[in-house]
Structure formats: C-alpha cells, structure tokens
Amino acid sequence: MNIKLARLLALTGYLGLIIWVALWHSLLSPHPDLGVGFMLVMWLPWLFIPMKGMIKGNPYTHAWAVYLLMPYFLHSATLLWVDEGERWLALVELLLASTMFIGNTYYAKLRGRELGLSIRKKKKT
Asked: Given pLDDT bands bounded at 50, 70 and 90, which one contains residue 32?
C-alpha cells in the first residue's frame, strides 16, 4: 500500500459515503414514517465534520475520522442481518465505509511516518 492509493481509497470511500447516504435516504428508499429531511439531518452531518482535513490530506484528521464510521458500520451490518429489502443498499454502505476505513488507516500511518509524526510513549528517564 502506498500513500497515493491509501488517499484515493480514503477519499473514494468518504465522498462515496456522503453521496450514497444522501441518495439512499432521499431517493432510493426513503423511510416510510420519518421525513427525508429528518433522515438526512440524522445521517449526514457526521460525515461533514472531517471534510476540511480530509480534503487537505491532514493525517491526523484521517486517523480520527475512522471513529465517525462506527454508526455506518453498525447500520449496514444490522440491515444486512435483518432487512432483506434493503440488503443491497446496506452492502454498498458497508463497502464504502470499509473503503474509507482502510484508506484512512493506511494514509494516516504512511503519511504520518513521512512527516515524522508519532504517537509513541515517552521513555521514562
């Protein structure tokens, strides 16, 4: 894995997840009981939090942005298990979240090394 591939995976997963979540909850399969606006407000804002750092290529942002993926992993895994009607939608969400996770993890690691950043413990003297 090299830095360019990791960054490509991270941004593909990230931007793809934003687009997919918006399409899913507004056009492809809107919730029958909850409004489209409510669903978008519930699912999209979390993805916009790391946008500035992700676009700039900040390795620190890439590292902590993986924590924001947990609701998307859980949502897609739950729907894969229980909802046959939306299984393919959940599979796409899981693939995009996994792509972003792998890309972010490797990009943060490789770019951090390149910049000399470290999270090693300080040695006791």
From this structure: low
Q: Tens digit of pLDDT for each residue in 58-75?
A: 999 999 999 999 999 998
Q: Nearest-5° angle of CA 13, CA 67, CA 114?
A: 70
- Map residue 95 onto helix, strand or coil: helix
**Which of 54, 68, 67 is CA-nearest to residue 9?**
54
Residue that is written with structure tokens 């899981």 in the block: 94
CA distance 51 to 56: 8
Distance CA 98, CA 73 (A): 8
For residues 60 and 53, give the distance between their C-alpha atoms in angstroms, rounded to a whole number.
8
- φ, ψ of residue 103 to 5 degrees: the values are -60, -45
- pLDDT at position 49 is 92
User: What is each CA distance from 62 to 12, 18, 22, 121, in whole angstroms?
Assistant: 13, 16, 22, 21
pLDDT at 30 over 70: no
